Amino acid sequence: MTRAKLGSHARLSDRIAKARAMKPSQVKKILGGNHMQKLEQIYEGKAKKVHATEDPELLIVAYKDSATAFDGKKKGEIIGKGVINNRVTNHLMQYLAQHGIPTHYVEEISERETVVKKVTIIPLEVIVRNIAAGSLSKRLGLPEGAKLASTVLEFSYKDDDLGDPLVNDYHIAALHLATPEELAAISAYAFQINDLLSAYLHDLNIELIDFKLEFGKTAAGQIVLADEISPDTCRFWDSVTGQKLDKDRFRFDLGDVENAYQEVLHRLLGN
Q1: Angle formed at CA 143 by CA 140 and CA 149, multiple of 5 degrees
Q2: Reported pTM
Q3: pLDDT of residue 21
Q4: Mean pLDDT (whole number) for 235-254
Q5: Does residue 24 register a pLDDT over 50?
Q6: How far apart are CA 58 and CA 63, in angstroms?
Q7: Contact at 8 Å (CB) between 148 and 129?
Q8: Are 116 and 218 in contact (CB under 8 A)?
């Protein structure tokens, strides 16, 4: 490697190091026009692929159009879903960060790809429910659309083979999934995120029925919001018409799936 290239690489490494310690809104000024180099794929899930980068503490997440439901029993494709989920997630992550919620978001580098902080995912799905729908309605015999007297917080153990079973604080402690302090922090963040998103979406005529969150720990031990916030992981209903604007349209063959996802993007970003 020539001295000029070594100097350029060193300057980029310095910018990356600074970016990891900064707020997302400041990152682009540091990284400039030099996007992260996408290296080998290290993971592929139902909705995303994850690639390593030249920085061990940063990853690139690429969103896919593939869709699944009912624990993978139903599979299909929602055209443009990856682009929409990437942009919606990044928009909402940045909004939450501006209001004090730490996230893994670093920089959106293409319509489908985003640089994120590398985290160790805490193996819990954190489910926040405002209105009865989905499995809650089935388990408790509540009519879909019934307003809950108070927000419900649930946890499920992330294990596809077991069907992501519901767990409580005692299960979480017994399985060493999170410490009491970590669980308290996650719960507090979940309720705060619910308050922030519910108010924000209300102004866009979107009712936040329920949603799923995932959290991770950085190398420094900080708990941050990870994964995604999108029509895949949230139930969004039009607050005027009650129209479903989320993956339930795919789950239950309601039709007009792509337009529903596009409508969410349009209301959030105007395009």
Answers
A1: 70
A2: 0.87
A3: 53
A4: 98
A5: no
A6: 16
A7: yes
A8: no
Going along the chain from its start, the domains and CATH numbers come out as 3-119 (3.30.200.20), 121-269 (3.30.470.20)
Residue 109: other Cβ atoms inside 10 A:
17
| Counts of helices then strands in the chain (DSSP H, E) | 8, 14
Give the contacts of 141 (CB within 8 A, at least 6 positions apart): none
Between CA 196 and CA 119 the distance in angstroms is 24
Task: Catalogue the long-range contacts made by 79-84 (C-beta closer than 8 Å, 24 or more residues apart).
Answer: 79/258, 80/258, 80/261, 80/262, 81/47, 81/232, 81/258, 81/261, 82/47, 82/112, 83/111, 83/112, 84/230, 84/231, 84/261, 84/262, 84/264, 84/265
Give the tokens for residue 212: 């799923």
Q: Which two tokens stand for residue 65?
A: 């159009």
β-strand pairing of 120-121 with 206-217:
antiparallel
Radius of gyration of the chain (CA): 19
Return the half-sphere exposure (C-beta side, CA atoms, 13 A cut-off) of residue 155.
19
DSSP string, 72-117: TTEEEE-TTHHHHHHHHHHHHHHHHHHTT--BSEEEE-SSSEEEEE
Specify the 3-state DSSP secondary structure of 189.
helix
pLDDT surpassing 80 at residue 22: no
37: DSSP letter: P
Do 157 and 170 form a contact (C-beta atoms < 8 A)?
A: no
Q: Within 13 Å and on the Cβ side, how many CA atoms surround 46?
A: 16
Strand partners, 215: 225
